[in-house]
Automatic annotation (TrEMBL), chain A:
Pathway: Carbohydrate metabolism; tricarboxylic acid cycle; fumarate from succinate (bacterial route): step 1/1. Substrate binds at residues 242, 254, 353, 394. The keyword NAD does not apply. It is an enzyme of class 1 (oxidoreductase). Pfam families: FAD_binding_2 (PF00890), Succ_DH_flav_C (PF02910). It is found in: Membrane. GO terms for molecular function: electron transfer activity; flavin adenine dinucleotide binding; steroid dehydrogenase activity, acting on the CH-CH group of donors; succinate dehydrogenase (quinone) activity. This is Succinate dehydrogenase flavoprotein subunit. The keyword Cell inner membrane does not apply.
Automatic annotation (TrEMBL), chain B:
Its EC number is 1.3.5.1. This is Fumarate reductase iron-sulfur subunit. It comes from Streptomyces roseolilacinus. Pathway: Carbohydrate metabolism; tricarboxylic acid cycle. Belongs to the succinate dehydrogenase/fumarate reductase iron-sulfur protein family. InterPro entries: 2Fe-2S_ferredoxin-like_sf, 2Fe-2S_ferredoxin-type, 4Fe4S_Fe-S-bd, 4Fe4S_Fe_S_CS, Beta-grasp_dom_sf, Helical_ferredxn, SDH/FRD_Iron-Sulfur, Succ_DH/fum_Rdtase_Fe-S.
Length: 584, 252
């Protein structure tokens, strides 16, 4: 075991982590621990753009953007946070441009903007061009630009270091962050990083679903590490299903395709979104479009021999426009489906895409240990966190924005805290939890296989807690997850070595997914209403009287060692906007 | 539900999409042996699936010790460049049906880099070469309040080289790099190109001088291996040629 000391430690090197690192490195001695090489993070898979009311191509302002974000989140958004997001969006985009990001340009040479789902002019009048983009690889360009600037600033990276535990020490009755424990993939060595400030920026949890746009590596490691140490997770029942994933594979096809004029069609060729969202049509918010697609499929209007998908039709768009604005996704269709999007519609289905919930933070990125108490020295930003700017449903282009605005805020806040704070004493034997976990898996003689348990988890999640949920389906999921958690105790791996043992890490990641799947299902079961991405067929309406509140889930361990999820609730911050019925 | 749907569903179940494919994988684990060796795995797989799916099948159902990097699984993150049937490709962008599954499919680590375990290589020298070309925007003077202006035409000038995902497929397909790891390699030059031809950047001269080095662009022998290998379709050899030309003409 090795012990390192840094002012600030950042966990994860996607957009949020590297945006934070650029700020923190200027202000404090900073280390970035990342399980992947920095440019491998899933920020790079984001396509369509980053919202900001620059008003470069038509009238727009940040107040409209705030409203759209609040409405898009089905009023579960904390409005003070949404206002910061929309207001600071403009500088966030300009910062990236100055760092070198090659945005597409208008004829005047300013940053070009395009339409995106749920973004509207004057509180819902009509779609507005607010998304700043670089073809359909905006996330790739953000990730590259941030890494380039990390190189410029000399950010110190520990590549292929898996953070497996959060260290918390109680000082005078206050829980404080003392550091993290990481596993070095190359050698199997365990490292303790003592740090005055820790920032989680480790991304989402999408791999507990089968059809997902998420990378294999999105296994909720940060959420799980904090949850295991008694910190709450907020609004985990809210998961976004992106309408247009490649059929069966789940690979993302950007909403920008519809922003450029693409149309969703059922097997009769009907533009069915006109029925469900007369104003915004194909550009309604993602939860609305995903439900509409599944309604078409369930009512027998799906395409293909099994009627299990619909089409994204780009054939009416000029090939030059597809080449210039959507080169990557048209290539995905050619590579993975053998389809030519110039002439043929692309089979799509909703795909598990984004966790709205996560580690609760305030607008400075400080992690909360209950509804109001800050954990000194602990921060989170990006998909791992819940500020909450996305509420019950995130708008497209608001996640690339979130990582930049709150990544920057967390980076500054953490480094400033570290500048004046002392190190918190490490707990006795700080690496013991990770050492035991690793040794148990390496020495296990159990009979269960990681891949089989993961397959069963993904199948039950897809079948029971996807776009449509009922008490019955969620209970089925809760039971199945409980069974899988039992069987997980008996899991064994084949690779017993120390060097690049990805077999071992996949087993640990599965444990994280199981913990988080349980939190999600238990939170969903208790929310007896429909709001944003959480749709209950048995409670099809939003219920502001009983459920206009955030879910806060805590891990409880009984005297006999049994683990349960305890739910509590937190009020939503409302400033300007009173909840209204949500129509697109 | 419409009748045709039922008929087609029935028809579909008659034919299994699965075929038997042999994966011939180059294995190396210094914890067990100093020698690398080939190992064959036979798996049942739908030929429309990716080579990465095949590797996962092996790892998840047959031999958990098989080690490779991967993340996004659709050609964006650049983790899984490997040598498949003798050619550098991303395992997640290569469909089994496209590489003749009748014969064994060979999978090896990319060449010219130190193999650490199975398909995992040491990427550090590769990233060091990238960092050495100053891959970030360099400007002087005060920053404007709003964005810097750039015409669509100027933006287009370096569009191709912004696509790079740093997978190393190009660099590790280059015979010059195989013979001499000191050569910057195509990927670093591509990333220098991305800034040299960006109208907002002011450090083209410095980058050109770095690449004028004995290990720089002049080592390129224009074999086009890099262009063939690039999973993002970047015209790598052309980009290198443009950097060479800029070194002579000092125009960019």
């Amino acid at each position: 075991m090795k012990i390192h000391k840094y002012d600030t430690v950042i966990v994860g090197a996607g957009g949020a982590g590297m945006r934070a690192a650029i700020e923190a490195t200027k202000r404090s001695r900073t280390a970035v621990l990342t399980k992947l090489y920095p440019t491998r993070s899933h920020t790079g898979a984001a396509q369509g753009g980053m919202a900001a009311a620059l008003a470069n191509v038509e009238e727009d302002n940040w107040e409209w953007h705030t409203f759209d974000t609040v409405k898009g989140g089905d009023y579960l958004v904390d409005q003070d946070a949404a206002e910061i997001l929309a207001k600071e969006a403009i500088d966030a985009v300009l910062d990236l441009e100055k760092m070198g990001l090659p945005f597409n340009r208008t004829p005047d040479g300013t940053i070009d903007q395009r339409r995106f789902g749920g973004h509207s002019r004057n509180h819902g009048e009509a779609p507005v061009r607010r998304s700043c983009y670089a073809a359909d690889r905006t996330g790739h360009m953000i990730l590259q630009t941030l890494y380039q600037n990390c190189v410029k600033e000399g950010v110190e990276f520990f590549n292929e270091f898996y953070v497996l535990d959060q260290l918390i020490t109680e000082v005078d009755g206050v829980k404080k962050s003392a550091g993290v424990v990481a596993y070095e993939l190359a050698t199997g060595e365990i490292h303790v990083f003592q740090a005055k400030a820790v920032i989680y920026a480790s991304g989402g949890t999408g791999k507990f679903f089968k059809v997902t746009s998420n990378a294999h590596t999105l296994t909720g490691d940060g959420q799980a590490a904090c949850y295991r140490r008694g910190l709450p997770l907020e609004d985990m029942e809210f998961f976004q299903f992106h309408p247009t994933g490649i059929w069966r594979m789940g690979i993302l096809l950007t909403e920008g395709a519809r922003g450029e004029g693409g149309i969703l069609r059922n097997k009769d060729g009907e533009r069915f979104m006109e029925k469900y969202a007369p104003v915004m049509k194909d550009l309604a918010s993602r939860d609305v479009v995903s439900r509409s697609i599944y309604t078409e499929i369930r009512e027998g209007r799906g395409c293909g021999p099994e009627g299990d998908h619909v089409y994204l039709d780009l054939t009416h768009l000029p090939p030059e426009q597809l080449d210039a604005k959507l080169p990557d996704i048209t290539e995905f269709a050619r590579t993975y489906l053998g389809i030519e999007p110039y002439t043929d519609p692309i089979p799509i289905q909703p795909t598990a895409h984004y966790a709205m919930g996560g580690i609760p933070t305030n607008v400075e990125g400080e992690v909360l240990s209950d509804n109001t108490t800050v954990v000194p020295g602990l921060y989170a930003a990006g998909e791992v966190a819940c500020v909450s700017v996305h509420g019950a449903n995130r708008l497209g282009t608001n996640s690339l924005l979130d990582i930049n605005v709150f990544g920057k805020r967390a980076g500054i806040a953490a480094a400033e805290y570290a500048a004046k704070a002392d190190y918190v004493e490490l707990p006795e034997d700080p690496a013991s939890f990770v050492e035991e976990q690793v040794e148990r898996l390496r020495n296990s003689t159990g009979t269960e296989r990681v891949a089989e348990l993961r397959r069963e988890l993904q199948e039950t999640m897809d079948a029971n807690v996807m776009v449509f949920r009922t008490e019955q389906t969620i209970k089925t999921a809760v039971e199945k997850i409980g069974e899988l958690r039992e069987r997980y105790r008996n899991v064994a791996i084949q690779d017993k070595g120390k060097r690049f043992n990805t077999d071992l890490l996949e087993a640990i990641e599965l444990g994280n997914l199981l913990d988080l799947a349980e939190v999600m299902a238990v939170s969903a079961l208790a929310r007896k209403e429909s709001r944003g991405g959480h749709y209950r067929e048995d409670y099809p309406n939003r219920d502001d009287v009983n459920f206009m509140r955030h879910t806060m889930a805590y891990r409880e361990v009984g005297d006999d060692g049994t683990e349960t999820v305890r739910l509590d609730y937190k009020p939503v911050v409302q400033t300007r906007y009173q909840p209204m019925e949500r129509k697109y | 539900m419409a009748t045709p749907t039922m008929e087609k569903t029935a028809a579909k179940t008659d034919v299994s999409p699965y075929i038997t494919v042999t994966f011939r994988v180059r294995r190396f684990n210094p914890e067990l042996s100093d020698e690398a060796q080939w190992q064959d795995f036979q798996i049942e797989i739908d030929p429309k699936e990716r080579v990465l799916d095949g590797l996962h099948k092996i790892k998840w159902d047959v031999d958990g010790s098989l080690t490779f990097r991967r993340s996004c699984a659709h050609g964006i993150c650049g983790s899984d460049a490997m040598r498949i049937n003798g050619k550098n490709r991303l395992a997640c962008k290569t469909l089994i049906k496209d590489i003749n599954p009748e014969k064994p499919i060979t999978v090896e680590p990319i060449k010219g880099m130190t193999v650490l375990k199975d398909l995992v290589v040491d990427m550090e020298p590769f990233f060091q070469a990238y960092r050495d070309v100053m891959p970030f925007l360099i400007t002087s003077g005060n920053e404007p309040t709003r964005e810097r202006l750039q015409s669509a035409e100027d933006r287009e000038r370096f569009d191709d080289t912004t696509k790079c995902i740093l997978c190393a497929a190009c660099t590790s397909s280059c015979p010059v790099f195989w013979n001499d790891g000191q050569y910057f390699g195509p990927a670093a030059i591509v990333n220098a190109h991305r800034f040299i031809f960006d109208s907002r950047d002011e450090a083209a001269e410095q980058r050109l001088e770095i690449l004028n080095d004995k290990d720089g662009v002049w080592r390129c022998r224009t074999t086009f291996n890099c262009t063939d290998a690039c999973p993002r379709g970047i015209e790598v050899t052309k980009a290198i040629a443009e950097v060479k030309r800029a070194l002579i003409t000092r125009r960019y």
